[in-house]
What we know:
The chain has 290 residues and is mainly alpha-helical. The protein has three domains: 5-161, no CATH class; 166-195, no CATH class; 201-287, no CATH class. The protein contains 13 helices and four strands. It has helices at residues 5-26, 41-45, 54-70, 83-101, 108-111, 122-130, 135-146, 184-193, 199-202, 207-218, 224-233, 266-275, 279-287; strands spanning 163-166, 176-179, 253-256, 261-264. Strands 1-2 form a two-stranded antiparallel ribbon. A two-stranded antiparallel ribbon has the order 3-4. A hairpin with a 4-residue loop joins strand 3 and strand 4. Helix 3 (54-70) crosses helix 4 (83-101), helix 3 runs antiparallel to helix 7 (135-146) and helix 10 packs across helix 12. The radius of gyration is 22 Å and the shape is globular. The N and C termini lie far apart (47 Å). Residues 3-145 form the DUF3644 domain. This is DUF3644 domain-containing protein. InterPro entries: DUF3644. It holds the Pfam family DUF3644.
Amino acid sequence: MVFKAGVFSMLANVAWTYLLHEYYEQQGVKIVSPEGFSLLLSQMVARHDCPLSKACKQNLMALKEIRDVVEHRTIGMFDHKWLPLFQSTCLNFEKALTEMFGQRLSLGHDLGFALQFAKLKTGEIAALQGHDLPEHIAALDASLAAKLDEGDADNLEYQFKVVYTLTSASKAKAHFQFVQPDSAEGKEIQNVLIKFKPKDDIWPFKPGEVIARVAQASGRPFTSDKHQRAWKLYEARPRKGAVDPAATKADFCTYHPPYDSYTYSQAWVDFLVEQIATDERWEALSKFKG
């Protein structure tokens, strides 16, 4: 079966609508109006109590806009143009499903990366890059881009872009090898393709330095105990004894295998200062037991 953007965007819209209907019903929110119309996905995404992240909402609104434009059109090879956006739609759905209703409902074993592995042939990529976009597709792309702030398009929850390499093979057997950007291999590729930076430049602060900087910047009595609560609460790094001690949040923390220790970034310091700025959040951190 040939992948069709219109079919995918329609079915994904239905799946997300039912997911949020169930969520709001469990929250005691009426999802059906007196006229018998249920809440639309766009209406639920626009609610102040919508549980989804900003990037996820942007992804779903882009999905709706794509559906509205292409569901009744055959656009051929240009169907594949939005695969990164659609991949995030799949991954976001898995995340929302398990966070709202439990890990037992996970689709990850079967569907988590199903779309990502529906790869294009090298000839199809060449053809796609060699053609001008149809007027209605170009207009849609411009419309989607206009709704994003700087940096929004790089968020993994908006569109999922991977680093890839070509494995040495004959032309007939050539294929793409996808690599997770946050994996060890992905980071190594980024160092080669972008710019190598030593760990000490990106994550220069030991825990004691983080504590001192946060205390000074926030004016709060930020202690070692508070820092331990913080990295557990915000999941900046794995807990002791984790299967993969290097599974950190890359913006905040990194693992040093030779020393079995962690260092942190300025972004982590800034994040903590922001998080404990209000008395309410400071108290929440103080009460967190993890």
